[in-house]
Design goal:
This protein is mainly alpha-helical. It has one domain. The protein has 20 helices and no strands. The protein has helices spanning about 5-10, 15-45, 50-65, 70-75, 80-110, 125-150, 150-175, 180-205, 215-225, 230-245, 245-255, 255-270, 270-295, 300-315, 315-325, 325-335, 340-360, 365-370, 375-395, 400-430. The longest helix is centred in the C-terminal third of the chain and has 33 residues, at about 400-430.
């Protein structure tokens, strides 16, 4: 072994949990870097109104895709063995196909009934929604299956491919004045490219354990065995997604498409730490917690939970301070003067995104412990707070920044309550095991 190889071996984390987080967060970081580097060009190729329009579509997409497999993709992590995981995977795939088709008339109805300004979307938006939902839904299923197999490098590669496809399409078509069509095409390219790459790697990994046949009876039994996912986890996830995605349509309804564009960019920039670190930590945390629970080792499971809670709380302070002190004056320099209001919006949303960064990854404990019903407490609270903020802003004629600050503080309080629920759950459930 050469001196360089020995040095690299020493620098490599010895803890398996940290190694997995490093690989996933590294791939996600590179994917996010692609998006970040393209943003200053994207904001000069597209107007705030155009980005506001596609952001409106993405708010529907973010809501619908959350339950597109009725959360059976989460059951892949806790299936009894690899053979059963094939059955759960088949069930989740069938549901993705059906739910992606159902999403088309749902979006069309939102358009036709002028719900929260969805009429601003192009008339063809429901049609292109189907392949986008299908592609990303399958990606989610294969991502969970790959996590079960520990294929973290393949997941990272797929994330990079997705980011490259989205950024490349936006820049390539935007240079020729692609407008809203180009932005939708970018989402389609990202969904299909990432799905195809991860599908091949995961199928190959689990090929040896595939049952000779998977019939209706097996699908039915698997559906019943993990019935908590569609019955409890899916409504909970949709409530959670509704509270997260509603602000943008609300902004469009109260302040117009241009304001929605500012809000969308601010949310995107603030979400980078969560997407880069939080998502990777959440995946590895769920994988490690599931292993500890399957091994009947509650002490190890509790140790993982509290270790990540402390580290995320400290790490999250860095983007929080940067958001409050730097973003208001940096936005017009980086993205152009027409995006200056987005910097102030970003600062007002910072408390919300910090809370999400710390608490959201740890919520993966709920499906692992089959305790999804407890999440409804937070979901209902967050949604009620969001709706209350909307009507209060409408009644008091609050400005865009005042509305964003009100939403941010309300959602941060919701996450504090959620953290308490998670603490009580971990203490009670893991003591019993």
């Amino acid at each position: 072994m050469s001196r360089l190889q020995r040095l690299l071996s020493r620098l490599k984390p010895q803890n398996a949990l940290y190694r997995s987080i490093l690989v996933l967060s590294g791939g996600t970081a590179l994917a996010q870097l692609i998006g970040i580097c393209s943003l200053p060009l994207v904001t000069r190729l597209y107007t705030p109104a155009e980005i506001g329009t596609v952001s409106l579509f993405l708010s529907f997409f973010g809501f619908w895709v959350t339950g597109i497999a009725l959360r059976y993709e989460q059951a892949l992590m806790i299936a009894a063995d690899d053979a059963e995981s094939h059955v759960v995977h088949r069930l989740a795939t069938i549901l993705v196909v059906l739910m992606s088709v159902l999403g088309v008339p749902v979006l069309w109805l939102l358009q036709q009934n002028h719900v929260l300004e969805f009429q601003l979307l192009p008339v063809w938006a429901p049609l292109i929604a189907w392949p986008i939902l299908l592609g990303y839904g399958l990606f989610m299923v294969y991502r969970s299956w790959a996590l079960r197999g520990g294929l973290v490098s393949q997941i990272s590669q797929a994330s990079i491919v997705r980011a490259g496809a989205i950024a490349g399409t936006k820049l390539g078509l935007g240079a020729f004045g692609g407008g809203v069509v180009a932005l939708f095409a970018a989402e389609l390219a990202g969904a299909l490219s990432s799905m195809h790459r991860l599908m091949q790697a995961t199928k190959l990994h689990f090929a040896a354990s595939k049952p000779s046949t998977i019939g209706y009876l097996q699908l039915h039994q698997a559906g019943l065995r993990y019935a908590k996912f569609p019955m409890l986890d899916t409504p909970s996830a949709w409530l959670d997604a509704l509270a997260a995605t509603l602000p943008l349509p609300m902004v469009a309804s109260l302040y117009g498409a241009e304001a929605a564009g500012w809000f969308g960019l601010a949310r995107l920039v603030l979400s980078l730490p969560n997407a880069q670190i939080g998502a990777a930590v959440a995946d590895v945390f769920q994988m490690s917690l599931a292993e500890a629970v399957r091994d009947k080792d509650p002490q190890r499971a509790r140790s993982v939970f509290y270790m990540l809670l402390k580290k995320l709380g400290l790490i999250g302070l860095v983007p929080l301070v940067v958001s409050l002190a730097v973003l208001p004056w940096a936005f017009p320099i980086v993205f152009g003067q027409s995006w200056a209001p987005a910097g102030t919006v970003a600062a007002s949303l910072a408390p919300w995104l910090y809370s999400a960064f710390v608490i959201s990854p740890l919520s993966r404990a709920l499906p692992v412990l089959q305790a999804q019903e407890w999440k409804l407490f937070y979901d209902v609270t967050a949604l009620v707070l969001m709706i209350g903020c909307y009507f209060l802003a409408s009644h008091l004629a609050l400005s865009l920044v005042e509305f964003c600050l009100l939403v941010s503080l309300a959602q941060a309080l919701g996450y504090v309550a959620y953290a308490l629920v998670l603490y009580l759950l971990v203490e009670s459930r893991l003591q019993k095991k």
